[in-house]
Every structure is written in structure tokens, then in C-alpha cells.
Write a structure and sequence with these properties.
4 helices, 4 strands
Length: 112
């Protein structure tokens, strides 16, 4: 997990805007299988959107904002990624590719 500056965050948000969510967190809540799936997606794409469908299925009395923040932190920890932003029920995560030649955003992020 890396710390992003506000400029770096804006760059990643701009690149994430046209993307569709590639993973979903559903009724069964977050589990290791979903963490592995998101990690594989980050290996392939570096920048991944995750839809939180669980927020629609919340029990009465649960706070949606707190639940989303908790999910953001869990995904960061399990996938060793960086949370870029959550808008509504869609969160964006970034993790640089392991192979330097596969890094799509490194040059642009290093300039910011």
C-alpha cells in the first residue's frame, strides 16, 4: 500500500472514470475468495473498480458509510492495494504491476 498525493489520486480517478466495476461485494459480505479475485484483477489491470452491492442488503441500524469505509480498509489489507476513492457504492483501488514494463501509470504518477 502506497500513500498517494492528491494529484496522484486525481490522475488515477481520471483513468478510472471510464472503467466498469470488475468485482462485486454481495450479500455474503467480503471473504478471502473475493480478496483473491480482486488481487488477480489488480495484477492484470492495476486499477480496479469494485461495486458494493452489500450496502443495498444492509440490516436495519447499520451505517452504510461506516460499512463502506470498513470494506475499503479490508480490501486494501487483503490485496496490498491503495484505496483511491469511493463514490456511491463503487470503490477504486490501485496497485502497481509487479513487472516494471507492465506498469501503465508509473510515469504519470511520478510526475505528480
Amino acid at each position: 500500500m502506497i500513500e498517494l498525493t492528491s494529484k496522484q489520486r486525481k490522475i488515477l480517478e481520471r483513468h478510472a472514470q471510464p472503467l466498469n466495476p470488475l468485482a462485486q461485494i454481495g450479500k455474503e459480505r467480503f471473504n478471502e475468495e473475493q480478496a483473491a479475485q480482486i488481487s488477480r484483477l489488480l495484477d492484470e489491470h492495476e486499477l480496479v473498480k469494485v461495486r458494493y452491492n452489500i450496502v443495498r442488503n444492509m440490516a436495519e441500524g447499520e451505517n452504510a458509510t461506516d460499512l463502506k469505509r470498513e470494506l475499503d480498509k479490508l480490501i486494501e489489507q487483503y490485496t496490498n492495494s491503495t484505496h483511491v476513492r469511493t463514490i456511491g457504492n463503487v470503490a477504486v483501488f490501485y496497485r502497481a504491476a509487479k513487472e516494471p514494463e507492465n506498469r501503465k501509470f508509473e510515469k504519470e504518477l511520478s510526475k505528480a
